[in-house]
Design goal:
Blueprint lengths: L1 H13 L1 H4 L2 E3 L1 E4 L8 E3 L6 E11 L4 E10 L2 H12 L6 E11 L14 H20 L1
Length: 137
């Protein structure tokens, strides 16, 4: 029986999928909600990041570009975005607005509705409702 446990442990430890962080990954999107590509990061220590840059063209047009992905560290993600912004020229100016990092699977997605106060109150009511109803009977 011990042999089976050791084999299962070895399979889990050698499996890249079991050890790798999963992040949303996309670049150059103006609508952050359209970023749905999931990427498995390298099994080394890594973080998920999301960042945004504003662009200004020579004609005065402005906009925001969003990027998401994996990086070995938050500092390296910030440096990579800064290097991209340094490629600006007189016709097209890029400026990094913000970079945020996290260390859980798919944590660089769009904020979930579950964080709303109404969703929390509804969930609490639904979970406590049967208990309160049972106490009244």
């Amino acid at each position: 029986m011990k042999g089976i446990h050791l084999v299962l442990l070895a399979v889990l430890l050698c499996s890249q999928q079991a050890l790798s962080l999963r992040c949303y990954s996309c670049a150059d999107v103006e609508n952050i909600n359209k970023c749905q590509l999931i990427f498995s990061c390298a099994p080394t220590p890594s973080v998920c990041y999301k960042g945004s840059m504003t662009f200004t063209t020579a004609t005065g047009e402005t906009g925001t570009i969003h990027a998401k992905g994996c990086a070995p560290s938050c500092q390296e993600a910030s440096q990579a975005m800064q290097q991209i912004s340094n490629l600006s020229n007189p016709a097209f100016n890029l400026e990094v607005r913000d970079v945020a990092c996290c260390e859980k699977d798919l944590c660089n997605g769009v904020a979930q509705v579950a964080r709303s106060l109404w969703a929390l109150a509804g969930g609490l009511l639904l979970s406590l409702g049967p208990a309160l109803l049972w106490a009244r009977l």
